[in-house]
Amino acid sequence: MAEAQIITSQYVQIDQTPAGIGERIFARMLDYLIMFVYTIGMIYLMDSTDLYYFVRGAYAELWLFMFYLPVVFYSFLWEILNRGRSPGKMAFGMRVVMQDGTTPTIGAYFMRWMLLLIDTWAWIGIVIILLNKNNQRLGDLAAGTIVIKERDYHRIQVSLDEFDYLSRGYHPVFPQAENLSLEQMNTISETLMRMDIHRPQRLAMLSAKVKDFLKVSPNMDDETFLRTLTRDYQYYAMEEI
User: Fold this and answer.
1) Complete DSSP assignment for 20-62
2) What percentage of the chain has pLDDT greater than the value 70?
3) What is d(CA 31, CA 34) in angstroms, rounded to the nearest whole number?
4) What pLDDT score was predicted for residue 58?
5) Does the global pTM surpass 0.70?
């Protein structure tokens, strides 16, 4: 499986493995199955109640459009509301991201959705996926997105000052930091950045969970521990560059 690696001018390292064509097909089939079940369910509901007769008489087109709106905008809505993951993608551990590793914009999601019809017509999407190294369909190419395997997605953002600091003989305090996932580090970073009256309690709870997970007992306060852990994580990330 090919791996796309990008290191930006701001020392953002991205190691991402494009999802395979087989995984994408099965994920799409699962999504179609969910849409099919929803459609059958709506037909049954309308047929077994007076709702069918009510819809026929009162703005029928509008009501039908509202009922089937989740099917029409299925991929678009799921990817916006669930950070680039439809149920099918979640089941197969995949996510839509921009080619630079950032979260896609609404416009990018919309472009992917708009071109989905073309991609599914006559297997055009599959042919295009087979012809490019990042397994992108036409919608991905137009939107600048890529479907990646979440377990292989690793993004580190390190400023120039941090890079200089870490490169001058820094010795990590917690070697276990190397084993933390991006999602775990995002949680730590977001907790450290949030400033409100509940911050000490959140830091204490998160620190306790991290200590238990890493099996460490540092002699430092919660915030210092989490910040040190973040710095160590960045150190190991920079070693890979």
Assistant:
1) PHHHHHHHHHHHHHHHHHHHHHHHHHHHSSTHHHHHHHSSHHH
2) 76
3) 5
4) 55
5) no
